[in-house]
Every structure is written in structure tokens, then in C-alpha cells.
Amino acid sequence: MNRRAFLTAGVSVGLAGPAMAAGAGEACAPMRGTGDLGLIIERATGSVLIVDVGAHKTLSRIEGLGDLSHATAVFGPSERYAYVFGRDGGLTKVDMLACRIEKRVIQAGNAIGGAISDDGALIVASNYTPGGIKVFDANDLGELASVPAIGANGKPSKTVGLVDLPGRRFAYALYDADEIWIADFSAGMSPALTKFTNVGRLPYDANVTSDARHYLAGLFGEDGFAHVDLWADKPEVTRVVSGYNAGREKLPIYKMPHLEGWGQSGSTLVLPAAGQHEVLLLNLETMREEARIPAHSQPVFCVARPDGREVWINFAHPHNNTVQVLDVFTRKIVHTFQPGPAVLHLEFTPRGHEVWISVRDADRIDIYDVRTRTKKAEIAGVKPSGIFFTARAHRLGA
Amino acid sequence: MNRRAFLTAGVSVGLAGPAMAAGAGEACAPMRGTGDLGLIIERATGSVLIVDVGAHKTLSRIEGLGDLSHATAVFGPSERYAYVFGRDGGLTKVDMLACRIEKRVIQAGNAIGGAISDDGALIVASNYTPGGIKVFDANDLGELASVPAIGANGKPSKTVGLVDLPGRRFAYALYDADEIWIADFSAGMSPALTKFTNVGRLPYDANVTSDARHYLAGLFGEDGFAHVDLWADKPEVTRVVSGYNAGREKLPIYKMPHLEGWGQSGSTLVLPAAGQHEVLLLNLETMREEARIPAHSQPVFCVARPDGREVWINFAHPHNNTVQVLDVFTRKIVHTFQPGPAVLHLEFTPRGHEVWISVRDADRIDIYDVRTRTKKAEIAGVKPSGIFFTARAHRLGA
Questions:
Q1: Strand order in the sheet with A37-42
Q2: Closest Cα partner for A23 from A59, A72, A76, A53?
């Protein structure tokens, strides 16, 4: 189905019509800045919306991106091209100005996210099947390297928690091998590998702080996080916030929390607890737990407002109609509201005057004024999930 | 002189030719991303270069911007338009895609920088003559507000250290009145003003941390800084790092250090000392001095690498041919080099793989690989000073 046919289909079910610009050709603006573009995943239909963030307007819908049920995106430095990583191993380069797919490859059988090197030249995908990572040329998506993830246990492993580090380096965790690796491509496409073993049972996701210093992996097989201080002369793994479920019933987990969206406020990191109705505050100076804040339900994303003063939190099914606002400075939940059914993601504008919230089961993206916490606009989308603004192009560890 | 005539003139003195793209029309690319554009001030000729940061290439030169001897620039959220604040009170909106001046106004007799609101709607200029600030519509540069700066002493004051804060707010210091003001335009163009008096003698420049929390003004009339914690329930001014010249000879100051370029690394702020050959390390948790690091000469800009691990420092005349690299983590100067005569400014690419250095008296901008610290390219420019990449559009307090 081409894009025009899809648009028609969208209109026919009454979803896409109102939000779309008048004509597809007209919407594909040839001359405009790209700093205020966004890409929104429509998870059920393998499509993405390209949006004008300032104008609160959909510019185009691009389809044919495969299984986007757990999709993520990164942007090239010019903020014209998006790279979308699908669950089915598809890697799609989208030209957001021309409103079309520039190139698409199926690079694995089952994948879980990706990253882009600090110079914008390398796209790296993290794979479940067959595991390991693969490196692609950002221009033409030609494969440059494939790095299997064979742990000390001799078995191939799923890789998770992939992030970029300065100097064409990438960090990731080996779920089946309890390891964390750093791959350094600065000298060429045969990377120097640094391996940390026995980091803790089953690292399921990870992230790095915005200064690319602290890499933290959540552990599925035990309560706590594995931590690496990447600035140390000889980095090593330590366990932090261990045993936060000790002496308490661990609740059944319907959705594992995401670490991609953790909130950083000064030297405090806000982490979603797995199996508890709370968020954990970790002090980055001491690497000790500062506090536990009771929350509405099991948190999924803890997203910091760009200044870090507040962290906005969404929750796992069946309590995923709600968002809470934590004032990190006073450590109080200061606001609770219900945007609608199945809030899947939140994205702040780069300097934090708005937050965009995808409400999947209402087929809607809501736009809130952050200061007044009131809804100011909405746009239509078919089962929207991840929201990605181009400002991410300029961040480390994105 | 129009742009084409200027180009010819540039070629005739052997400066502009080599770096310019083949044709002016061709260089003004109608369809391209704007996330990797930059604007470089040519201070002596009232012109700016628009550069393609990824390609290491000048796209165009735009002239007619007046006196740029102490110029600065901010970018609109789309990263297409730059707003250049000249020393002569000129405010110029530059269309970087069309390579032309979109609009230009003379808004004051003598000005010193500006800022843009978090939503991109308001451009604010900070003025020496007649003092105070003025607010302009980002679209057409129509004047929306003029806020005189009459201090408690009853006299109009120069304003300095203007920064944007979340929620259409701006902070600035009153040089002649020893005050700091916050103007809040969230409810309209008659701002709510918060005034702090007796902040210290002659605040000459100021900045806010990247989380828009700590506002710090350097004091010309005494040793030290005035500090406001903007997150406090009732913000107040305290003096920090007071008396750092005590018991020591204060050297003659050829150029006041800039606070716009201070370096932040975790909770450590690296500040240029005025009148000493050293930089000061301030801990943001305690607001106490952590260390003083001896440096090559009197520092001007202390610019943090985007991850904050290193701060690159340039120096005042007559030692301004040198740059030093401070490893903030180990508190050691790890590298000293001489890019050339009169290093005026440094700008890192958004994720820190390169740093661009303007070498005024060599009529050159040098591009260094940050990891290897080696020069990888250079472009020509006529007496280049400030270098501004569009990624600044996405930062608070820029």
C-alpha cells in the first residue's frame, strides 16, 4: 500500500483525516528548518507521523516500516533523517523533509532499539535474534560490522540497553550472559571490546546519564541495578540500590519499566522500581539510594522535564491512563491526572514549555502546557506510541 | 555593498575564496536539514558566515549586520532563523536557508547580547544605552515591550548577563545598580518583576546553569559572585567564592572573562577568575569553592565538552594564542596548545566529537578532533570571533 492509499484508508476509518495537512505534496515542505520536527510511531500500522512541533500539525504519514510494536528512533545530526528500529529487525531511514522512506533493510530477526555514533556516521542496532549488535553506514545503511555477543558462558546473547558514548563507542548489556560490553569503533570496524562479567542476573535494559558517565542496567533476575562509572581509570561494575524489594511482596509485572526515559535532576536520578508502586531516587555522587517515592502504580517511563526540576511518570497496565508529576526538589508528587486510555509515552519540547503525550487507545497525541499543566491541543494518530523530537540528535547517550 | 560584491571583495584580499561554496545561489540550499548549521561572526566586517558543520564548509556569507565587535546569536526552535545581537543595538534576523537578512532593526544605541524565550516566541535584547531590556516578536521583530532598568538608586542601568528561564521568564543583572531582576512575561507583555538588591558591586556578566537553577553574576567591584537559587521557595542572593584575590596581587585585566561559556561537569562549575591566572571550581551542591587550578594566563571562556569531563579554556591578550584542556574529573591540565594568534572563541559540536576554534588574527576557523586533539580541517573567515551552532536552539539559558 503506498502512502496515498494509506492516507485514504486512514481517513476511511475516521482517524487520520482531521490531523493531516491538506495535501501530501504540499505538506512535504521542501524548504524549512528541521529543528522542530518530530516523529511519532503508530505501532499497530507500521507507520510514522512526521509532525511540526511548533505548529501542532501533522505534516505527513509514512508507512511500510514493518512491525513497530516496540520501536524506537534516532536522528542524524542534520535533523533531516530519522532511523527507526522496528521489533522485526527492520531498520528504516526516513527522509522527514521529502516525506518518504530513503532506505530500509531487514538487519535481524528480532531487534530492540539502536543508537547513532557521536559523529553521526554509524547506526548501530541491538538484536534479540540472533543477538549481538550490527553497525551500518548512516548514509546508505550498508552493513559495516556485525559483533556477536557470546558471553563467558559460551552462548549467544540478546543485547539490550544500547547507548552511544563519545568517540564512536557504544555500551550495551548481554541479557543471557549477565555481562556489559563496550565496543569502541574509533580505530575501525573491528571494535576494541571491553567486557564486564557477572554484572548481575539478567540485565533487561540500561541507560547512561546525559554526561555519558554513569551506565546503569536494570536487573530482571534480582532487585537492583548494575553500575559502571565510565570515567574511572579502570571502570568496574558495582551493584547499586540492591534489594529494594527485600521484605516486601514483589508485584506481578505486566510491563517492565523503561530506563531510556529515566529522569535526571542535578545529581539525583529518578528510576522506576520494578514490581513496586514507587520510584527510586539515586544520588549520583554517592551512588546510594536517597529516597523511595510512593506512586500511583508501577512506573514505566520517568521522564525529566528538560530543566530536571520535575519528572513526569506514566504507568503499567491496568493503571496506564494516569500520569503523575514528581517535584524532585521537594520529593513530592505535585500533580496527578488522566490523559486517557493507555498513555504510552511522553516527550518534552527541547526547552520544556510543552509535553506531548501519546494516548494509544484514544488514537490521540495530547499536547500540554507544562507550566499550567493544561491541555492546549491534540493531534490524531493511529495507536500512537513513541514520540521522538529531532532535538534528540544533539544529545549524548540518546 | 551587496552580498555578491562582498564576496568578490573577500576573494580579492585572498580570504574568503577558498572556503566559499562555488556559487552563492547554489550554496543557499533550499532543502536540507538545519540541525548541523552554524553561524560565525566576522567582527570587523559586520558579516556572518553560515557553515555546514558536518561538511566543514562555508555555505554563504551574509553582510550588512552593523557593528559585530561584541556580537552574540540565538536560534529559533526550527533552527532556520538566527537572531544576531550587535554592539550597536542592531538586532538582525537571518534566514540561514535562504542566505539573507529577513529583518533588521536598530533597537538601542549600544547593546550587549540577548536571549529567546523557551517557546521561541520572544526575542529579548539587553542594552547598555539606554539600558533595560526590550522584547520583540520572533516573527517580524515588532517591539512588544520595553522594560527600563531603574535601580533602587533611581538611575537607569546597563543590563548584562541576560538569560532565558522556563515559562517566558528572563534573568539579568543591573550593572550600575548592583541588582538582579527576573522578568516574567508568561501573563503578557507587562512583566511581573522580581528584584534582588545589593547583590554585590557592579555585576558585569552572568549565566545560569543548564538546569536553569543557579544564576551566578560575576562582580567587577569585588572578588566573587552573586548567586541566586531559582528553585528556592523564596529565592535570595548570596555571595559565593568571595575574596578569591585576597592577599594576592590582582593583575591588570585586559579582557573581562565571559561567563556565557562556563563549564559544568556534574555538580562542578568551572569559572574563570578575574585578575588571576587560574580557574575556580565551584561545587553546586554546597556552593563552596572546591579548588583553584593554575592556568596559562587569565582565562576568558571556560567551555565544557558536551559530556562535561573536560573544559577547554582560552585566554586574554597578550596570551591569547593558547588553549588549555582541563580534565575536571582529575583536576589536571592535560593539554596545552597554540592554535594561532588571537583565539577568540570555541564551540563544540553538539555531541562533542569536534571543537571549532576561531583564530582571529589568522583569519581562520580551525576544526579539531576532540578525542585525538589534532586539527582535522580549517575554513577561512575574516577576523572570526563568535561561533554558534544551531543546537543551541534546544538549550535552556542559552
A1: A57-63, A47-52, A37-42, A384-389
A2: A59
The C-alpha cell that represents A261 in the structure block: 526515559
Residue B291 grid coordinates? 579548588
CA distances, B337 to each of B271, B310, B327, B333, B374 (Å): 20, 15, 15, 11, 10
Give the one of B33, B164, B166 whose C-beta lies nearest to A79's C-beta: B33
| Reported pTM | 0.93
pLDDT one-digit tens code per residue, B367-396:
999 999 999 999 999 999 999 999 999 999
Q: Do B353 and A395 touch (CB under 8 A)?
A: no
Q: Which of B90, B77, B78 is nearest to B48 (CA)?
A: B90
A·B CB contacts under 8 A: 165
Q: Among B35, B75, B266, whose Cβ lies nearest the Cβ of A77? A: B35
Q: What confidence tens digit (pLDDT) does each residue in A315-330 have? A: 999 999 999 999 999 9
Q: Which residues of chain B have a CB within 8 Å of the CB of A306? A: 166, 396
- A155 touches A107 (CB < 8 A): no
Each residue's pLDDT tens digit, A102-137: 999 998 888 888 999 999 999 999 998 889 999 999
Q: How far apart are CA A382 and CA B307, in angstroms?
A: 37
Write down the ipTM of this complex: 0.93
Q: Which amino acid is at B106?
A: I
What does the CA dihedral A52, A55, A60, A64 come to, rounded to 10 degrees? 50
Nearest CA in chain A to B120: A54
